[in-house]
Amino acid sequence: MLQNMHLDDDDANYNLDEDLNDSYPVILLSSEEKQSTRAPWGSALIVKAFKKSLGYKYLDFKIRAIWKPQGKLQCIDLGLDYFLIRFKLKDDYWKVINEGPWSIGQQFLSVRRWFPGFRPFEEKPTTTTVWARLPELPIEL
């Protein structure tokens, strides 16, 4: 249901030559440093609402109400209607992943695991999970 996207330490889609620019400093990290900086985001999800935009405060309030996390939850606005939701407890994280799909009213939420290098302005959603209601469908199907 959720895509599990992992980039290796070399970040296959990352091109150092494109980022080498005299106007910006470049910081090169070892594999251990990358792993250390990414670790706090291992229990984070990327959330996007479809149809219409949801405000930060409204989304934060509603997901706390429907997900009912036992531990702390941090909501970060990434822009372009993308939000990063970071969980303190792995149990809360796995509950949201395993019990979806999720919606707020009639508003469907796309929920997927965080991955290194996520950039909202480069995202082009190509797939989504949906619930389909098929009334009077024979049970054997």
Describe the structure.
There is one protein chain. By secondary structure, the chain is of the alpha+beta class. It has a domain at 42-112: 2-Layer Sandwich (Alpha-Beta Plaits). The chain is 24% helix and 21% strand. The chain is built from four helices and five strands. The chain has helices spanning 16-19, 31-38, 56-67, 90-99, and strands at residues 44-49, 73-79, 82-87, 102-104, 107-113. Strand 4 (102-104) and strand 5 (107-113) form a beta hairpin. The longest helix is centred in the middle third of the chain and has 12 residues, at 56-67. It is globular and about 65 Å long. Mean pLDDT is 83; it is low at 1-10. This is DUF4283 domain-containing protein. It comes from Lithocarpus litseifolius. Residues 41-121 form the DUF4283 domain.
Question: Which features would summarize this protein structure in a list?
Answer:
single chain, disordered N terminus, Alpha-Beta Plaits, 5 strands
Describe the SSE topology:
Blueprint: H1 16-19, H2 31-38, E1 44-49, H3 56-67, E2 73-79, E3 82-87, H4 90-99, E4 102-104, E5 107-113
Antiparallel strand pairs: 1-3, 1-5, 2-3, 4-5
